[in-house]
Specification:
Blueprint lengths: L2 E2 L2 E2 H32 L6 H19 L3 H22 L9 H23 L15 E3 L4 E3 H23 L1 H11 L1 H6 L4 H23 L11 H14 L4 H21 L7 H12 L11
Antiparallel strand pairs: 1-2, 3-4
Length: 296
């Protein structure tokens, strides 16, 4: 049997496929962070909390209202996105002219509050969320049986990431969003409602995190700690790709998921730190990240 570094090739291929699933979550979460920072300049440390709230919205919808997975996939991001809009209007809007550190501290506090509330309501133990009937079973790839649901996660994440990139980089609306982020006063002078754009952008970024939470609910245990356990890695992914770079967030998320998966099978002891080692190396070589823009 063919092997690499003494590890059978089927085991490596299987771990790479699982790494691609994790990379899909990293890409989708990093995308929301990149949208918020790139267009608003806010380091949204509450992103992991919104990811967790998306998963809990799906869980509560199922247990309380009998809402199926497909409805949750549409309604949970909408509900969490509206919550994000309320937070932006009441709190974040007062910090845009200040140092980004203030926004980071505020969103960090919001994350702690959300985590504490959910822990008080549901406890610290995880809740299970069933895989929808239409996505049960698996594909036999020869080297592993890939669950259909995990294949759906990869497809859905890539589709959302591609659609978001196209919207921001290739449409008139995206041009307006980017212009508002670079020179809000000039855009406002043309009669465009910049506060509305800012509000909707933050809500959309938060909704992307909640969507990732709904996708993750059948894969991981839905718990108040699920956001804090992933947000640090996602921040590292965004830094590697380049803060504010949509393409960088998506590409880095997928690639780092694959690297992490490969590390788990070749040298498992390093799997928890490999992303941060790569971040350190990238920052020494290119401080703006792989896809970040150099300051003039």
């Amino acid at each position: 049997m063919t092997s690499v570094f003494g590890v059978p090739l089927p085991a490596i291929l299987g771990q790479l496929m699982l790494g691609l699933v994790n990379g899909s979550f990293y890409a989708l979460l990093s995308l929301g962070l990149a949208v918020i920072f790139g267009l608003l300049g806010v380091v949204n440390f509450a992103h992991g909390a919104f990811y967790m709230l998306g998963a809990f919205a799906a869980y509560v919808g199922l247990e309380t209202f009998g809402m199926n997975y497909w409805c949750a996939l549409a309604l949970a991001p909408l509900a969490v996105g509206i919550l994000g809009i309320v937070i932006e209007r009441l709190l974040l809007r007062h910090l845009y002219q200040l140092d980004p550190l203030y926004g980071l501290l505020l969103t960090f506090g919001i994350a702690l509050i959300a985590e504490g509330i959910m822990r008080g309501l549901f406890g610290a133990s995880g809740k299970s969320y069933p895989v929808p009937d239409a996505l049960r079973g698996g594909f036999n790839l020869g080297f592993m049986v890939l669950p259909i649901y995990r294949a759906w996660v990869i497809f859905a994440s890539l589709a959302v990431c591609g659609a978001t990139w196209f919207l921001i980089e290739r449409t008139r609306l995206g041009s307006t969003l980017r212009a508002a982020g670079e020179n809000a006063a000039l855009v406002q002078a043309f009669g465009i409602n910049v506060p509305l754009i800012v509000m909707m952008t933050y809500g959309a970024g938060v909704a992307l995190a909640a969507l990732a939470g709904v996708l993750a609910a059948p894969v991981v245990q839905v718990s108040p700690l699920m956001g804090s356990s992933i947000v640090i890695v996602v921040f590292a992914v965004v830094v590697i790709g380049g803060m504010g770079s949509i393409l960088g967030a998506v590409v880095s998320g997928l690639v780092l998921g694959l690297i992490e998966g490969l590390t788990k099978v070749i040298y498992p002891e390093a799997s928890n730190i490999v992303v941060f080692v790569i971040m350190a190396v990238v920052l020494m070589w290119r401080p703006t990240g792989l896809f970040g823009r150099e300051s003039p």
